[in-house]
What we know:
Bound molecules: S-adenosylmethionine
Number of helices: 10
Oligomer: single chain
Amino acid sequence: MDRWVEETLHRGFRVNLKADRVLFDSETEHQRLIIFDNADFGRVMMLDSIVQVTTKDEFIYHEMMSHVPLFAHGRAKRALIVGGGDGGVLREALKHPELEEVTLCEIDRGVIALCRQYFPEISAGAYDHPRARIVIADGTKFVAETDDRFDVIMVDSTDPVGPGAVLFTREFYAGCRRCLKPGGLLVTQNGLPFLQASELEQSIGFFRELFADAFAYLASTPTYFGGPMSYGWATDDKTLREHKRKKIARRHEKAGAFATRYWTPEVHVASFALPPYVQELID
Length: 283
Ligand code: SAM
């Protein structure tokens, strides 16, 4: 009997994925986790019945969550990833040679252990990289208490359900501001504006109270069903999102012009061109 796994994130819209082979299906310390193989999207991980990552399209989200802020900042030495237990954002961030250290703060050690086992190609050794530091903690507690200071913070969280709900609060964003260096940049996984408009609106509202510049950029990942995903943007340096293609291309050259499959200097600049239905959520 075929098994179909349902994503239950939205009120009136559900997606079913065929599980050709189920590799893991149980509770972790914090969440329900299932890993299975699917003919169209490759290996899939879902947390609390919501797609997190697939081997076929993960490159899009991971490249846009890492290279856009890191090349926009342009001189980051220390970066923090909150969440990101599959290791994809860590993998991409470590491609930036000028980064001295990348800290990954993940609440669920079970996610890291299972992704090491079933998705080795996603982290591609990043967990054991000499410039990587792995911390198992609630991101809200970590940013409120750490003595470290970061140039760039990338919040690769689940949706605002379960342990991820706190990562969409003003308290968490204030904690991120606390551990950002002057001129630092915060980017956040901020949902699908077409189906989760209030999520982006609320985050932008909090960003406005805490930072001089609040904005968002977009990119579509096929298995985040429902249109383009928004990446929240918060910083005191308004120039960071005004860089021209040439400058971003030069920074990519300087970083060794590593290969990418989605991010390019052109895609980078274009991702800030928002359609009116998204712009109005930010205004
Ligand atoms: N890219 C995916 C998305 O957009 O839905 C997210 C992928 S990543 C696997 C999400 C991670 O956030 C999970 O591993 C989850 O355990 C972690 N997470 C959830 N709440 C957290 C918290 N409060 N502190 C730190 N990590 C958290």
